[in-house]
Amino acid sequence: MKIIAPATSANLGPGFDSLGIALNSYLVVEVLEPLENWLVDHEFGSNVANDRNNLVVRTALSINPELSPRHLKVTSTIPLARGLGSSSSAIVAGLLLANELGQMNLDQTMLLQLATRLEGHPDNVAPAVLGDFVAATYDEDWCDALQLPYPKLSFIAYIPNVELRTKESREALPEKFAYRKAVHGASVGNVYVAAVAKQDIDVIGRMMVKDEFHEGYRRKLVPDLDRIRTVLQHTAHVGTYLSGAGPTVMTVATQAQTAAVVAALKAEPQLDGEVRVMSIDRLGGRVIN
Ligand SMILES: Nc1ncnc2c1ncn2[C@@H]1O[C@H](COP(=O)(O)OP(=O)(O)O)[C@@H](O)[C@H]1O
Ligand SMILES: N[C@@H](CCOP(=O)(O)O)C(=O)O
């Protein structure tokens, strides 16, 4: 049995802690033979546990402590702590693992509730469970999440060589926020979602760069956001935003615009990270028997 969970890009500009999309890099968990103790083969290095403390196993045991230990093989093309939802992919994979091994019959709604409670915000886990674009809200008790088909666009990730833990990036955010700014920020997010529903790429692009809630406060942690907006000033594209908590900077483009955006990013000497062209994963977390 294999469990697959996609990468996710959260916020999408103005949708802090609410909007996210599933993308085609994947965490794959292969479930192998029963063992005395949990063993997780992975290539993340010694900072990531390979026993019952591994996030995938810890998540599974948190909802089903009776699970019998297994040998797991984890492979992943989702870089850790880069703003592409690696922790959410591990949480969703762990829940699917417990659901399968423990025959728990949890449906997507329950998986979504459990995943959101564990991650603390729904914008990565919701698309990791459901696939595609998701608008979600969480009130510490229940998560409502609705999926919409996002227009078929490229997601061009600039992935820096450095990690930025989501926890650290959230510490840069303010405790309080001016009422008028909040009203404007919410209206931008509302129009963004309406533009997705209408498949209006022009409005999606204009709303994508009008975030009020987080990018301004994180600017000092992620100088590449402003740098890339400057680099792409004269290259046609839909919009650029900070992916999740960063440091990945995401540029959205039509298929026809993609090659020129990639070339412009690769030509900038200060951008020595990876440029990865990603597409939308429409399916979300899944199990292959
Ligand atoms: N597949 C995995 N297995 C175990 N731990 C993981 C896995 N993926 C992510 N993690 C844990 O989550 C941390 C990254 O989470 P976070 O800071 O939220 O960044 P991201 O934006 O990648 O989700 C990693 O440093 C690691 O501790
Ligand atoms: N809304 C969250 C999203 C974090 O996403 P991640 O991929 O960086 O974990 C935030 O912006 O803090």
TrEMBL record:
Residue ranges constituting the GHMP kinase N-terminal domain according to the UniProt record: 54-131
Residues that, per the record, bind ATP: P79, L80, A81, R82, G83, L84, G85, S86, S87, S88, S89
Family annotation (Gene3D superfamilies): 3.30.230.10, GHMP kinase, C-terminal domain
Record field: catalytic activity: L-homoserine + ATP = O-phospho-L-homoserine + ADP + H(+)
Keyword Transferase: yes
Compartments it resides in: Cytoplasm
Signal peptide start and end residues: none
Annotated ranges, domain GHMP kinase C-terminal: 194-267
Pfam families: GHMP_kinases_C, GHMP_kinases_N
PROSITE patterns: GHMP_KINASES_ATP
Keyword annotations: Amino-acid biosynthesis, ATP-binding, Cytoplasm, Kinase, Nucleotide-binding, Threonine biosynthesis, Transferase
MF term (GO), any: homoserine kinase activity
Keyword Transmembrane helix: no
The protein's Enzyme Commission number: 2.7.1.39
Pathway(s) it belongs to: Amino-acid biosynthesis; L-threonine biosynthesis; L-threonine from L-aspartate: step 4/5
EC top class, as a word: transferase
Family: Belongs to the GHMP kinase family. Homoserine kinase subfamily.
Function: Catalyzes the ATP-dependent phosphorylation of L-homoserine to L-homoserine phosphate.
Protein name as annotated: Homoserine kinase
Underlying gene: thrB
